[in-house]
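Sequence, please.
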């Protein structure tokens, strides 16, 4: 039987299983298409992708999504509370289907985690928690793994070939949605950092001007004074500059009040 075209026969009075699964997949794909990176935070969008995966993949009880980023800590979300426990265990031990999928770019499936020789430490602990099936789907964009979707089920052998095929189909648009959200989040962080840098530069320039007016020294002398204070007080240069500007403002207010 072709896993993408399974037997759709059903007993009288029952809906065809394949038809239900196709509806679930279609609904999940429509949900993906409707996600807006502009309206949702990165974590919220990733959580929705994980929830859509549970809806799309037959047999899934819960899912997590790990976004891989080279320049910062990985972003990890989950659709259900039990996924947090199982994923924390996997990352804490340093082995498991998600880690293998991220390293190889290949789908990882297990129908009996407790006896799976690929991940003996993780698998045995997962089995004791009643999580016996796992499906780790790498999210690939131009052969680069941008993240991994971890799908779990309590029964053994919950994910057959058809479920794997559905998961891999879902992972293609999911990877694009995740990458778009990642790019937007990076752009937003860059904007915030630039705004902060401009603000810091402005307050440092103000502090330099205040020091020059007090000492009659040069701009270079004032900057050296700021840097020395920063080192001695173990504070950022911008924080020291802010203190000087705020102190000058307080003195000016006090002089104005006393003169009235």
């Amino acid at each position: 039987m072709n896993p993408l075209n399974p037997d759709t026969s059903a007993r009288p009075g029952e809906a065809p299983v394949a038809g239900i699964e196709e509806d679930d997949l279609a609904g999940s794909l429509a949900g993906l298409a409707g996600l807006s990176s502009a309206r949702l935070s990165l974590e919220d969008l990733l959580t929705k992708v994980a929830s859509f995966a549970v809806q799309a993949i037959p047999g899934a009880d819960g899912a997590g999504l790990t976004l891989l980023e080279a320049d910062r800590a990985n972003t990890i979300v989950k659709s259900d509370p039990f996924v947090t426990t199982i994923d924390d265990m996997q990352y804490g031990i340093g082995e498991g289907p998600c880690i293998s999928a991220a390293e190889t770019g290949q789908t990882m499936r297990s129908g009996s985690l407790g006896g799976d020789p690929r991940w003996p430490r993780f698998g045995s602990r997962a089995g004791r928690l009643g999580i016996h099936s796992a499906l780790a789907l790498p999210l690939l964009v131009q052969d680069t793994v941008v993240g991994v979707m971890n799908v779990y089920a309590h029964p053994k052998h919950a994910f057959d070939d058809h479920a794997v095929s559905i998961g891999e189909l879902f992972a293609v648009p999911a990877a694009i949605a995740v990458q778009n959200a990642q790019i937007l989040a990076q752009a937003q962080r860059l904007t915030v950092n630039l705004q902060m840098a401009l603000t810091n530069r402005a307050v440092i320039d103000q502090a330099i001007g205040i020091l020059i007016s007090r000492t009659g020294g040069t701009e270079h002398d004032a900057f050296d004074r700021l840097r020395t204070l920063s080192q001695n007080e173990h504070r950022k240069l911008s924080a020291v500059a802010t203190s000087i500007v705020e102190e000058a403002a307080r003195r000016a207010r006090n002089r104005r009040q006393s003169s009235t």
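The chain has eight helices and five strands.
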